[in-house]
Amino acid sequence: MNTTLRLETLTPENIDAAIGLRVRPDQEHLVAPVVKSLAEAYVHPGTAWPRLLVDGERIVGFVMAFFDIDFAGDGRGTDLRSGLWRLNIAAGEQGRGYGRFAVEAVAAEIRRRGGTRLTTTWHPGEGGPERFYLGLGFRPTGETSGDQVVGELDLS
After folding, report:
1. Cα–Cα distances in angstroms (integers) from residue 56 to residues 3, 30, 94, in the given order
2. Phi-psi region of 22 (alpha: psi -120 to 50; beta: other; left: phi over 0)
3. In 10 A of CB 40, how many CB atoms?
4. Could you tell me the end-to-end alpha-carbon distance of the chain, in angstroms, rounded to an integer?
5. DSSP letters of 45-111?
6. How far apart are CA 49 and CA 125, in angstroms?
7. Among 40, 124, 146, 154, which residue has the fewest nearby CB atoms (within 10 Å)?
8. Is the pTM of this model over 0.90?
9. Beta bridge partners of 81
10. Which 8-state DSSP code applies to residue 36?
11. CB atoms within 10 A of CB 65
């Protein structure tokens, strides 16, 4: 992995490249395209944290975190969570540590904000990212979000 790997905010100069980022065709049903993430970030500006993964001058991925959402969705705010909302690694860039870097960067941002756990969801089954997340230390909580498994990583 290149030592110039970093996260960058989205700008007018890189938005087209961000929107053009594609995962492998066999993964398209597992993760929403970047353009949908950007629309969600636009309508949830206080919650969403979209960033590009850049290696040198190449955009190699996209990550979007969320902070302090009411995970129960009951409006009481008794189950506030932060975590990984979206992770897209470009088709030709997978298997190079970029996904791990993105998750570690989100974990660092959650810690910086005082959080002690990172929540994410994934589609279970063949070809899905479960092995990736379990390999990073995530553990299923026993919950589901729609048809996805909810997992958490202890950051304490």
Report:
1. 8, 27, 16
2. beta
3. 17
4. 27
5. TTTEEEEEEEETTEEEEEEEEEEEEETT-SSS-SSEEEEEEEEEE-GGGTTSSHHHHHHHHHHHHHH
6. 28
7. 146
8. yes
9. 69
10. H
11. 25
